[in-house]
Automatic annotation (TrEMBL):
Signal peptide: none annotated. It catalyses: L-seryl-[protein] + ATP = O-phospho-L-seryl-[protein] + ADP + H(+); O-phospho-L-threonyl-[protein] + H2O = L-threonyl-[protein] + phosphate; L-threonyl-[protein] + ATP = O-phospho-L-threonyl-[protein] + ADP + H(+); O-phospho-L-seryl-[protein] + H2O = L-seryl-[protein] + phosphate. Keywords: ATP-binding, Hydrolase, Kinase, Magnesium, Manganese, Metal-binding, Multifunctional enzyme, Nucleotide-binding, Protein phosphatase, Serine/threonine-protein kinase, Transferase. This is Protein kinase and PP2C-like domain-containing protein. Residues 30-315 form the Protein kinase domain. It comes from the Eukaryota. Gene3D superfamilies: PPM-type phosphatase domain, Transferase(Phosphotransferase) domain 1. The keyword Ubl conjugation does not apply. It comes from Nelumbo nucifera. Coiled coil: none annotated. Its EC number is 2.7.11.1, 3.1.3.16. PANTHER family: MITOGEN-ACTIVATED PROTEIN KINASE KINASE KINASE 20, SERINE/THREONINE-PROTEIN KINASE TNNI3K-RELATED. In the N-terminal section; belongs to the protein kinase superfamily. Ser/Thr protein kinase family. In the C-terminal section; belongs to the PP2C family.
Length: 658
């Protein structure tokens, strides 16, 4: 800002210092203008500092504890440096006027934009704000700081609508959170908004259930508040209402609930705001992420590291869809759509078809026919039996390939069932089409089949139905002149892990692989379906297929495919079947984690190698996945590499490298 730093650049107590931020200012250097906002703890003014527009936060200091809080907040702000954090440009930390000077953000805060200006951001804008806010919170958590008051009113927007997280009056270092008891919450900071919230930390509408139960705040409590806020950004309405105008919404809230009633509904009944409608254009993957963020169990919520990775993937997918939509002359074709009679402008390259969307549309249609009955309700749900506690993460890379043909999905708490989780990897060949289609379609089939079939039967039928649907889709497109090449026969291998309470089912078709670490040792849950296996060769030949030695190994048919089971590959059916082999086991306390990966990992690593690497890695599933994939690339893997790691019992991170 050009303001001179006066030495010594410290607060009056000497506990706050900075090399770049002036901490005491001559009265002539700044001017306070009109108030922007008033709260119980501070007044924010528009101001001028060194000739430039700023926002000046002037705390109301009534007690020595309030003054202690000012110094504590200043110490923290002086250490923060991130584009997603509101920028402190100066402070006056000496009597009689204690003030914070922040960069001025032209578009005010997100709550005002949504509920006063009635701003309706597009999905691309929502994704950008969510991603940038998640990066800011990831940065805070990496420093061991919990914000404790994440909400739209504390998200400032600049002229480009880039979000900046503000108001660190309630923020605490993780190491200090453990010391804060219920009795001193009030002195640690009053809430900054909402209704009926006398002794709560944070704003009631955005508070996680554990906070409402008066447990200690953690980073995962910030994740909950983030999920509520992003859903509000999507819907435009105040949480727990259907109203946009904030004042009117809060009046309705106070008529509907007392503080105790809302708290009880959130904690005991699982009440959450109405989730954004998929018809709004919000990706189903984003809606699933929001639901996981506001999960009642803090351990089941993703970390911001995983949230950032997932949002990045969702944005990349959205970008890809938009690029396809904008290709001149290429119609957006869905299975069952009325196709144009004039197809002369359709490009002859199948790359113009968005197979993710094809599969997703099929999944939506399939889910409409799903029974409302609970999935696999007949399986034991005895509270005395062992139940795994999951955390999960993934990493995928092209490796040395020019294109990415792997896809995967993570669907913990499938359809809102807290004890049902599904994870899958699809390794494409002859293009990514089958893998992209299957990653969206197969979960939809499984959801439909779950209420009427056993897990094993549902998995088998979901694989077969996905295969048939994909091949029918190709056939329909081949009937459109030039839509796809006649001799194009894409396929993919697939492995899916389904956890139903303490039961684990692994369905595998091809050469992806899944292992379980049990008591520190690898336990194979799948076997490779490849032509070099005598059993698989004989099965293919008996089904009418051809297998012969080509180049360096046994291969199937004119396509020279190495795998003997897959989804797609319609030129090799029925010999190359989509029917998976299914392994079922009961999980126990000695089961540590699950590793699923495409063959790009297993080509260069043994099961024992994988267990050894995780043993020496920080126990965060996303980090373990990345470490395995990176190590495989360094060992010379020539294929795409996708890894999913699912821990089956609680783990810490830096404390547990065993």
């Amino acid at each position: 800002m050009g303001v001179q730093i006066l030495e010594p650049n410290t607060c009056i107590r000497g506990c706050c210092s900075s090399k770049t931020i002036p901490l005491h200012l001559p009265a002539s250097s700044y001017t306070l203008l009109s108030p922007i906002a008033r709260g119980s703890e501070s007044v924010v003014y528009e101001g001028i500092l060194d000739g430039k527009r700023v926002a000046v936060k002037k705390p109301i200091l009534s007690t020595s504890e309030d003054l202690d809080k000012f110094h504590k907040e200043l110490q923290m702000l002086c250490k923060l440096d991130h584009p997603g954090i509101a920028t402190l440009v100066a402070a006056h930390a000496r009597p009689p006027n204690y003030m914070f000077f922040f960069q001025f953000y032209e578009s005010r805060n997100l709550a005002e934009q949504l509920h006063v200006e009635e701003w309706n951001p597009g999905i691309d804008q929502v994704l950008k704000i969510a991603f940038q806010l998640a990066q800011a919170l990831q940065y805070l958590h990496s420093l061991g700081i919990a914000h404790r008051d994440v909400k739209p009113a504390n998200i400032l927007l600049d002229r480009n609508y880039y979000p900046h997280l503000a108001d660190f009056g309630l923020a605490e270092y993780k190491k200090d959170l453990r010391k804060i008891s219920i009795e001193n919450w009030k002195s640690s900071g009053k809430p900054t908004g909402g209704f009926h919230k006398k002794n709560m930390v944070g704003t009631l509408l955005y508070m996680a259930p554990e906070i409402l139960k008066k447990d200690i705040h953690t980073e995962k409590s910030d994740v909950y508040s983030f999920g509520i806020s992003i859903n509000e950004l999507l819907t435009g309405v105040v949480p727990y209402t259907d109203l946009r105008a904030e004042a009117q919404a809060h009046t309705v809230l106070e008529m509907r609930y007392t503080e105790q009633q809302l708290t009880a509904a959130v904690v005991s009944e699982g009440l959450r705001p109405v989730l954004a409608d998929p018809e709004s254009g919000a990706p189903t993957s984003l809606l699933s992420l929001i639901e996981r963020c506001w999960n009642a169990d803090p351990e089941s919520r993703p970390s911001f590291e995983n949230i950032v990775m997932e949002l990045d993937s969702i944005m990349e997918h959205a970008k890809k869809e938009k690029e396809v939509e904008n290709i001149p002359g290429v119609p957006y074709i869905f299975l069952g759509d009325q196709l144009p009679s004039d197809v002369s402008n359709i490009r002859t390259y199948q790359e113009s078809i968005n197979w993710f969307t094809q599969g997703e549309q099929l999944a939506k249609r399939t889910s409409l026919s799903a029974s409302s009955a609970r999935m696999w309700a007949d399986l034991s749900n005895n509270s005395l039996e062992y139940h795994p506690i999951l955390s999960w993460g993934s990493f995928a890379t092209c490796g040395r390939r020019e294109t990415m043909e792997d896809t995967h999905f993570l669907m913990p708490q499938m359809c809102g069932e807290k004890d049902i989780h599904i994870f899958g990897i699809f390794d494409g060949h002859r293009g990514a089409a089958a893998a992209e289609f299957s990653a969206r379609a197969l979960p939809g089939f499984l959801q439909t089949l779950g209420s009427t079939n056993s897990p094993s039967d549902a998995l088998l039928e979901a694989f077969v139905k996905t295969d048939i649907a994909f091949r029918n889709e190709l056939l329909a497109l081949r009937n459109i002149k030039g839509a796809v090449q006649k001799d194009w026969h894409p396929g993919c291998t697939a492995v899916v892990a389904l956890i139903v309470r303490n039961h684990l089912f692994v369905a595998n078709a091809g050469d992806c692989r899944t292992i379980l670490c049990r008591g520190g040792h690898p336990f194979a849950l799948s076997k490779d379906h490849i032509a070099s296996s005598l059993e698989e060769r004989e099965r293919v030949i008996s089904a009418g297929g051809q297998v012969k030695w080509q180049v360096d190994t046994w291969r199937v048919g004119p396509a020279a495919l190495q795998v003997t089971r897959s989804i797609g590959d319609d030129d090799l059916k029925p010999a190359v079947t989509a029917e998976p082999e299914i392994t079922k086991i009961n999980l126990s306390p000695e089961d540590e984690y699950l590793v699923m990966a495409s063959d790009g990992l297993w080509d260069v690593m043994s099961n024992e190698d994988v267990v050894s690497i995780i043993r020496d890695t920080v126990k965060e599933p996303g980090m373990c996945s990345k470490r395995l994939a990176t190590e495989a690339a360094e060992r010379g893997s020539k294929d795409n590499i996708t890894v999913i790691v699912v821990f089956l019992r609680p783990v810490s991170t830096a404390e547990r490298i065993y």
